[in-house]
Amino acid sequence: MLKRRQLLQLSATAAAAAGLGLSIQGRANTPALITKTIPSSGEAIPVIGMGTSRTFDVDASDEAIAPLQDVLAAFFKAQGSVIDSSPMYGKAESRVGDILRNMAARPPVFAATKVWTEGREAGITQMEESARRMAVEKFDLIAVHNLTDWQTQLDTLKRWKAEGKVRYIGITTSHGRDHDEFLEVMRSEPLDFVQFSYNIDDRAAEEALLPTAAERGIATMINRPFQRGSLFGITRDKALPEVAADIDCNSWGQFFLKFILSHPAATCVIPATSKLHHMEDNMQANFGRLPDAAQREEMLRAFAALQADA
Ligand SMILES: NC(=O)c1ccc[n+]([C@@H]2O[C@H](COP(=O)([O-])OP(=O)(O)OC[C@H]3O[C@@H](n4cnc5c(N)ncnc54)[C@H](OP(=O)(O)O)[C@@H]3O)[C@@H](O)[C@H]2O)c1
Question: Using a 6 Å cutoff on CB, does residue 148 contact ligand 1?
C-alpha cells in the first residue's frame, strides 16, 4: 500500500506533466486518491476537505468532543488533510485544536483559517490566537473572511507570507452573485486561494468567480457544497441516476461533491458534518473517477428532473 505522501508526490508529478492541475492516481483494484494542484505553488492537495462552521462549535466536554474525534479520525483515515475554520465559528477552532493535540500521531494537516476583524493590530492578535486555538505552529492558509477590512488584513497577510509566517493567503465569501468587490480583489491582488459557495443548485459562481480564478491562477476552496444540507431534501428517497456508477458514487452526497469537482476551476471542497457516517460517505468522493463534461451534463439533467418533480 502506498503511503499518503508517496501518493501525493506521484499525483503532483503526473499533474505537472499533464499541466492540468488534476491527478487521479492509483494502482489496479485500489481506489485512487484524487488531488488537484494549487496553481501558485504546484502543491497537490486532496480534493475533499472539511468545514467546521456549526459542526465543531461545541463545548469542551468529553461528551461533545467524542463524536467529533470519530469524525476527524474518519477524515484522516480517508486521506483528508484540508481543514477550514474561522474565528467567526465560535468554539470551532478550539475544538479542532483539542482533538489534534490529543492525537497520538498527528496526521498531516493543511490548516486553513480566516481573519475576521477590523484594524491591523486586532487582525494580528486574532490570527495569533487562532493558531493557539487550532494548535498549529503556522497556518497553511489564512483568508480574509467575507472581505472584512480586506485592505488592512491583506496587507498584513502579504507581509506574513513574505516573512514565511503563512504559506498561502486569500479571501472568502458565501455569495456567488453581485460580488463585484470580490472579483476586483481577485483581479488586483496576489491571492493563492479564494473561497466561495458553489453547488449543483447554486451555480452563480460559474459566471465570473470560477473563470476569474482559472484566469488568474488562483486555487478555489468551495463552501456550502450541500447548500447547508438542503440539497438532501430534494433527493430524499430518490434513486441515484445511472451516471453515478460511472463516476464511483454510491450516494447523493458523493454525487454533489463530484459534480463540484468536475468543474476544472474547482480545486477542493469543504463539506461540514457532525456525523461519522456522513464523513465516511463524503470521504468516498476523495477517490475514484471524476465526471467528464458529458457526465457533468447528465448529472445536471438528472438533478433538474428531480427538482421539477419536487
Ligand atoms: N464566508 C465563508 O468563508 C464561508 C461561508 C459558508 C461556509 N464556509 C465554510 O464552508 C463549510 C461548509 O459549508 P456549510 O457548513 O455552510 O454547509 P454544507 O457543507 O453545504 O452543509 C452542511 C450540512 O450538510 C449535512 N451533511 C453533511 N454531509 C452529509 C451527508 N453525507 N448526507 C447528508 N447530510 C450531510 C450536515 O449535517 P450533519 O452534521 O447531520 O451531517 C450539515 O447540516 C463551513 O463549515 C465553513 O467551514 C465558509
Answer: no
Q: How far is the CA of 195 from the centre of ligand 1 (A)?
A: 14
Phi-psi region of 17 (alpha: psi -120 to 50; beta: other; left: phi over 0): alpha
- CA 208 to centroid of ligand 1, rounded, Å: 23
- Number of domains into which the chain is organized: 1
Q: For residue 36, is it within any domain?
A: no
Q: Is residue 79 part of a domain?
A: yes
- Residue whose CA lies nearest to ligand 1 atom number 23: 229
Task: Determine the 3-state secondary structure of 184 from DSSP.
Answer: helix
Ligand 1 binding pocket includes 271 (Cβ within 6 Å): yes
Range of the domain at 70: 45-309
Q: What is the pLDDT along the chain (310 residues), one digit of tens a residue?
A: 334 433 433 343 343 334 445 565 555 556 799 999 999 999 999 999 999 999 999 999 999 999 999 999 999 999 999 999 999 999 999 999 999 999 989 999 999 999 999 999 999 999 999 999 999 999 999 999 999 999 999 999 999 999 999 999 999 997 755 689 999 999 999 999 999 999 999 999 999 999 999 999 999 999 999 999 999 999 999 999 999 999 999 999 999 999 999 999 999 999 999 999 999 999 999 999 999 999 999 999 999 999 988 7
Q: Structure pTM? A: 0.92
